[in-house]
Write a structure and sequence with these properties.
With 475 residues, the chain is α/β, with parallel strands linked by helices. The protein has helices spanning 40-59, 62-78, 80-91, 95-115, 154-166, 179-191, 207-216, 229-240, 264-276, 293-308, 328-343, 373-376, 392-400, 415-424, 457-462; strands spanning 21-24, 31-35, 122-124, 132-139, 142-146, 169-173, 199-201, 222-226, 245-249, 254-258, 286-292, 347-350, 363-368, 383-389, 407-411, 429-432, 451-452, 465-472. The strands form 4 sheets. A 7-stranded mixed sheet has the order 12-13-14-11-10-15-16, with helices on both faces. A 6-stranded mixed sheet has the order 7-6-5-8-9-17, with helices on both faces. α8 (229-240) links the parallel β8 and β9. The longest helix has 21 residues, at 95-115. The structure holds adenosine-5'-diphosphate. Adenosine-5'-diphosphate is lined by residues 146-148, 173, 175-176, 207-208, 211, 227-228, 231, 234. The active site is at 249. This is NAD-dependent succinate-semialdehyde dehydrogenase. It comes from Enterovibrio qingdaonensis. Keywords: Oxidoreductase.
Length: 475
Amino acid sequence: MDKIKNMSLLSCLCEKTASSIAVTNPANDQVIGFIPSHDNTAIQQRIGLAKEAQKAWAKTTAKQRAEIMHRWYQLLMDNQEDLARIMTLEQGKPLAESRGEVAYGASFVQWFAEEGKRAYGETVPTPLADRRIMTIRQPVGVAAAITPWNFPIAMITRKAAPALAAGCSFIVKPAIQTPLSAFAVAELARQAGLPENLLVIVTTEDAVMVGELFCQSPDIQKISFTGSTNVGRILMRQSAESVKRVSMELGGNAPFIVFDDADINLAVKGAIASKFRNAGQTCVCANRFYVHDAVYDEFSEKFSNAVAELEIGNGLEANVTIGPLIDEKAKEKTQRLLNDAVNEGAMVSTGGHALDGQFFEPTVLTNVTHLMSIVQEEIFGPIAPVIRFNDETSLIEMANDTIYGLASYFYSRDINRVFRVAEALDYGMVGVNEGIISTEVAPFGGVKQSGIGREGASQGLDEYLNTKYICLGGM
Ligand code: ADP
């Protein structure tokens, strides 16, 4: 903490009290600081304030909102180094990745500042001569979000930026592991001139209470969630009662496919980036590798060699490329999946050990088959199972054989195959010859049980707008 220059970013910190929440560093288990806990009454009160604030905000022009958002973007980038440090301290990811996430998170603020100006309605040719028909787009009202710990800034700005640009107010409960980044981002929005109560952070260890409150509140019109499919289901069920709009970014089980005509070196580079970013703890991380028989040995060897060179350690240290897992539970799950795979016949090509603290060696498994639990489940840890395949048709069947449909990746240099496979993959996103595909200008989201709705791009704004039809009669 001593290296943070802009201490206003940490103004959320409070004294240790009976109800305060400790934030710890997953790299060494040390307490970084304490934050306040909000109870049901306090959260309800904030929802009320967000409702009031939204009325005035909706009356501003998109241009006025954009001016504030551009200042916010600039402050996020001006404070990139401090924000990255705070993120690494509470989340564990290497500093270079944290810097990248700050820039990625800020990019949504910049993008939606402009996109908010393009919330166009339509005039529609009328079928009746005495009428004129038009549509306008209006903010949904108060939008609420629940976000995860793996991208402490981006998962908030990806939702808050379109909400605010559309004219909504926004209330979010960040994951309890990573609240400092959330408060810091909100503090910069305040410094950028965002009026009070439009971007509200609430923190509590009682996630169930907040989920119920958000879903049931008649003052909230929209729920946006990023997290596990299981919790997504709960929130959708709870939202049914008040017929709320929902956006869900849920789990994934991304296939990473290497065809025999692939550029193997490029595929290895993409595999490392896609699998081991954030120690494998992202919903778009490659979860299972299908490699054609003809290039299986070459790919596995080059991939394992590259993985063996990854540097494990505290993300604040230079050269570290793999930080700790977020908590003990995550480490146990990784270990369980590894044990099961080995018992089922998988071979450890590199790595394979849990280390002290919350660290786990980046691991490559060969001799893996499609039905092993490590292939069927979302790993969310640094293990790469590599499966051999022979023909494209059965490969596509295996790739689509999952309840999930978020990201998918494949490597090929055959143009016909590129189109054929991209169209056949039952996923919301397909990376062709590229392992990192997220950007603010493209719609991020899943099909099947990976979610509903899109974030980023023009589609991301739609999630926070209602279309109103106006009929002008008696003309
Ligand atoms: P993960 O396993 O990656 O932590 P979760 O889906 O459990 O994924 O958590 C994502 C977010 O959902 C976190 O902010 C967490 O506090 C919240 N959460 C967990 N359980 C519930 C619930 N029953 N209702 C509402 N939010 C929840």
